[in-house]
Amino acid sequence: MAWNGKRASQASGRGRDGQARKPSDALSGMGELGRDARRLLAALAQEGAAPARADLRDGFLVVAAPRNGVTAIIANAPVAAGDELAARALARWSTHVPPRLELAEEGANLARRLAAPAGVAPHRAQHGDFVMRALEPGATPVAVDEAESPLTWLARRRGRNGAPFLDAAQVEAGERFRRDVEIAQIRQRVTSDWSGAVGSGRRGPQDLNVSDLAIAARQRLERAAETVGGELNNLLLDVCGLQKGLETVERERGWPPRSAKVVLKIALDRLAAHYGLASAAQGPERGRVRRWGAAGYRPDI
Predict the structure, then answer these.
(1) Do residues 80 and 180 share a domain?
(2) Is residue 296 part of a domain?
(3) Which of 41, 47, 53, 197 has its C-alpha lying 20 to 30 A from 158's C-alpha?
(4) Contact, 130 vs 144, CB < 8 A?
């Protein structure tokens, strides 16, 4: 893969005509991006991806990335595909010898849009961190944005003593509550009125098309609300269910700064107890001594 003037101009973000390219130029005609270029773009966007020249195939690039503790080749494509990405300002050739293909910011954004899961708008996928997750055992996986979860963010925080701010039981309780909110389709209604799905079996007009799975989830949420308490349950619904940020919750409630996470921790404690979750097995420090016996003692059977 020889270094030439064409790649020198593309490395500096210029086109074949030597004119500087604007990032917006890279977004025009994306439907015409070739199959090899799309595959190469997706590979370059993988975490830890490292493109290199294919020694065994002249005129080809390979992209390697870590997989299960080892580095593996995840894609190979013609050098022309790299030239196509560079021409659209989605990537650039480095000044190394031999040059390496580096993903540009616009290329990373486009890769996230092209990888948008079904039912997720491309521009929403660009700014999120979507994973496919089954909300119930055996259920069809749905797209969940982990980047938008305040609980996920809080679970990564540590207290002054270096220990996680939330323990494993609290995180699991919040995630279980979140799954029930998703299944119950409450986020679509943006309401905490579940009166049509309580154990009495009554259904309002809005519930006629709701599946039995959603009704069961609402019933579980009702039981959790009775145990946790009204105000704490509303906080759980806002943060774990509706994905409201902690600062938004504090502003809406008129709470002091950084108070929402403390109250949320109390709510998650009660919720974890309701679910029967614990971070560690609880029990006496040691078993009760039933009988002392000298060496060689054998009990009567």
Answers:
(1) no
(2) no
(3) 47
(4) yes
Write down the pTM of the prediction: 0.47
What tokens does 242 get?
A: 């509706």
What span, in angstroms and rounded, lies between the C-alpha atoms of 241 and 276?
20
Task: Work out the number of other CB atoms within 10 angstroms of the CB of residue 45.
Answer: 18
| pLDDT tens for each residue of 159-178 | 788 888 899 999 999 999 99
CB-based contacts of 266: which residues, under 8 Å, 6+ apart?
Answer: 232
CA 90 and chain centroid, separation:
24
How far is residue 16's CA from residue 20's CA, in Å, rounded to a whole number? 10
What is the number of residues in the chain? 301
Cβ-Cβ contacts under 8 Å for 108 (sequence gap 6 or more): 45
Count of domains forming the chain = 2
What's the CA angle centered on 106, arms 11 and 14, to 5 degrees?
30
> How far, in Å, CA of 50 to CA of 167, rounded?
36
What's the rounded Cα separation, in Å, for the pair 121 and 143? 11
Domain interval for residue 76: 5-114
Instruction: Dig out the tokens for 126 from the structure.
Output: 């660009």
